[in-house]
Design goal:
Oligomer: single chain
Number of domains: 1
Order of helices and strands: EEEHEHEEEHHEHHEHEHHEEEHH
Helix content: 25-40%
CATH superfamily: Ribokinase
CATH class: Alpha Beta
Strand order of the largest sheet: 5-4-1-8-9-10-11-12-13
Number of helices: 11
CATH architecture: 3-Layer(aba) Sandwich
Shape: globular
Largest sheet: 9 strands, mixed
């Protein structure tokens, strides 16, 4: 990797996404396309597309899907040296069910098969691995999300281990990514956990809906009042985004593009904003870059930019 480019390390779950080639009920879907998925993996791919050196810390199974995911990272220029292979647990997958909408777009319904997966067994030992340690030590930024601590008790402990690492000048980025299905029957615990991470991060992303569900506030300025600790806070909605850098505040509208399907656009948006701040862009410039990269995910049924 070139020495002149900052390194961003994304820590979290990778999945294989199976997407029907034709929209409709799953029982009528005969053929599927596979692609890389997982919030942090999507972000890593988008960061690499924006010219930022990116690496992933995760675990996959010793199976064809795991080998496919690692090969996809390399194809997109993402370092996979810290993706560990589990000899016993499988690689997680999810299936998209595409429901046609009247305007020509589709609504995606997700069906996850990740219980007992290799990624759900990520643990503090994963973070303590020598290869992982070298990458994080060299990183200008580490990116995580609220999905990881919801996967298992060991994954929660791994996230804690990431947040406990000496930070120095390195930025720690956190995307709230509230997934109520993963916190079912422990929603209050999940809210407390994600709030704690958000307060300790340097960069925080959340949607208006997630802010309402997790923090109990939905106005962006109220979210900022609730989370004064992070230097950067970005609150997004379908209409656009409002970003804060310390006391500074700016907002921007989403770009007007044909929307095919929205899954993964938030990960691409986060990558664009992070690429902006790592490249020394202003708050306004970072937001503009975020919107441009997000549009590349909105116009496809894949979760990541290509």
């Amino acid at each position: 990797m070139p020495d002149t480019s900052p390194l961003a390390v994304c820590v979290g779950e990778g999945l294989v996404s199976l997407v029907p080639t034709v929209a409709g009920p799953l029982e009528d879907s005969r053929t599927f396309r596979r692609s890389l998925a997982g919030a942090e993996w999507n972000t890593a791919v988008a960061l690499a597309s924006a010219g930022i050196d990116a690496a992933v810390v995760s675990r996959v199974g010793d199976d064809g899907f795991g080998r496919f995911l690692r090969a996809e990272l390399r194809r997109h220029g993402v370092d996979d040296s810290a993706v560990q292979t589990d000899p016993d647990a499988p690689t997680g997958i999810y299936v998209k069910e595409l429901v046609p909408l009247a305007d020509g777009a589709v609504e995606a319904r997700m069906h996850y098969y990740r219980t007992g997966s290799a990624a759900s067994a990520i643990s503090p030992a994963t973070i303590a691995d020598a290869t992982v340690g070298r990458l994080i030590e060299a990183a200008a930024l580490v990116h995580t999300s609220g999905i990881t601590p919801a996967l298992s008790s060991t994954a929660h402990a791994a996230q804690d281990a990431v947040f406990a690492l000496p930070r120095g000048e390195r930025l720690l980025s956190f995307d709230v990514n509230w997934r109520p299905a993963l916190w079912r029957r422990r929603e209050d615990e999940g809210g407390d956990v994600l709030t704690g991470y958000a307060r300790r991060a340097d960069v925080v992303f959340c949607t208006i809906a997630d802010a309402d569900a997790v923090f109990g506030v939905s106005d962006p300025d109220d979210v900022r009042a609730f989370l004064p600790e992070p230097r950067y806070l970005v609150v997004t909605s379908a209409r656009g985004a409002i970003a804060f850098d310390g006391p500074d505040r700016t907002e921007s509208s989403a770009l007007d593009v044909p929307v095919v399907e929205t899954i993964g656009a938030g990960d691409a948006f986060a990558a664009g904003f992070l690429a902006g701040i790592l490249s020394g862009l202003s708050l306004t410039g970072s937001l503009a870059r975020a919107h441009r990269i997000a549009t590349r995910a909105l116009t496809s049924t894949r979760d990541h930019v290509d």
